[in-house]
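WARN no homologs supplied; continuing
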Amino acid sequence: MNKAWAEGVLGPIIDAGGVLMPTTCGICTGSGPGQLGPGEVGISSTNRNDKGRMGSVEASIYLGSAAPVAASAIEGQVSNPREFI
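OK structure emitted
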């Protein structure tokens, strides 16, 4: 984290409303902060997208490799990474 802060990577993320959280399996198991609510959409590079896996059973979970997940984080919606590559 210190290196990312020193290189100026974290500032824009935090300025955009990003929140740093400790590394945990919480969201992947549908527990702890950051769970998806009813009707929300998430994209993850995890290996499972079972209903309710990341919170509400009424949320949509998409799986992708690192590139589409990163592009989606930048765009704020499920996105194609080609314009960033």
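The mean pLDDT is 84.
OK
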